[in-house]
Amino acid sequence: MKAALSIWLLVGSLCFFLAVACRKDDAISPGASAATTTTTATTNGLGALPLTATVPADNAATAAKINLGQALFWDPILSGSRDVSCASCHHPASGYADQIDLPIGVNGQDLGSTRRFHAPNGIPFGKRNTQTLLNVAFNGIGVDDVCNPVTAPMFWNARAKSLEAQSLLPIATLEEMRGHQFTAAAALDSVVSRLRRIPHYQQQFAAVFGDAVPITVTNLGKALACFGRTLLATDTPFDRYMRGDQTALSTQQVQGLNAFVQSGCQKCYSGPMLSDY
Ligand code: HEC
User: Fold this and answer.
1) 3 found inside a domain
2) Distance set, CA 178 to CA 97, 158, 182, 232, 275 (Å)
3) Using a 6 Å CB cutoff, which residues line ligand 1?
4) Is residue 17 a part of any domain in this protein?
């Protein structure tokens, strides 16, 4: 009886061992990526985010430029009727997004889930749900860990390339920031003229860019993009686990991660951003 039990235990253990061994290729183990600070290897197309983002050669980050970008991000002066800032839709209290299905820009009031139009209203909702800006600095990063900030895809349908170019588009979009104040073609130049009349922006742009005419559409995009690249969330439990911290995920979470890989989710939700853009 005892001998029979031992044999069954032995057979059972062997089956368990074989089952685990056969799944080894798909299972994600901690430390799969190198525990370095700036680069990550990937396993099964997944990996930790780098801790810092690559910047374009002509838009290096400086503290003064980040401060300027932050001020602009929060300033409704960028909108036609001076009633919407970037933060109206990308608010830190809502994870740098909003909490409504479709965004309300011009003629909106309140923030988060209670944001609504003033009455009367002739402005439509935005066409797509607001994306978070967290980690937008890494848009385009692939399973190879390479990220080119100049060609980085932006928006749900990747119709804009680079944060510098994208950051200007909401200013010229009717329902987001422009309203009926300007035509789309005149929006950016009109906003730049406004900024040129404000002494603290004259000083800040001059200190940051040092050009003969520092307040330009291009420099507005550069400052906004420079601030956008500081909105990071690179220290999630998943990132820590992929950098080798075995305690970062619970057993159940690791099972979930393995199920995610085994069922092929990571073929589309791939790379350190879990996205194919
Ligand atoms: C009315 C709300 C609204 C305002 C105001 C707004 N955005 Fe957005 N933002 C959105 C929506 C909606 C999307 C997604 C649009 C799409 O894909 O068509 C988006 C997308 C983005 C993205 C792309 C994110 C990604 O992962 O691809 C960036 C960057 C961005 N916005 C920055 C800004 C900046 C900078 C400003 C201010 C100059 C701004 N937004 C103003 C609603 C807004």
Assistant:
1) no
2) 19, 22, 7, 28, 31
3) 78, 84, 86, 88-90, 103, 105, 126, 128, 130-131, 133, 136, 139, 154-156, 163, 166-167, 170-171, 176-177, 224, 228
4) no
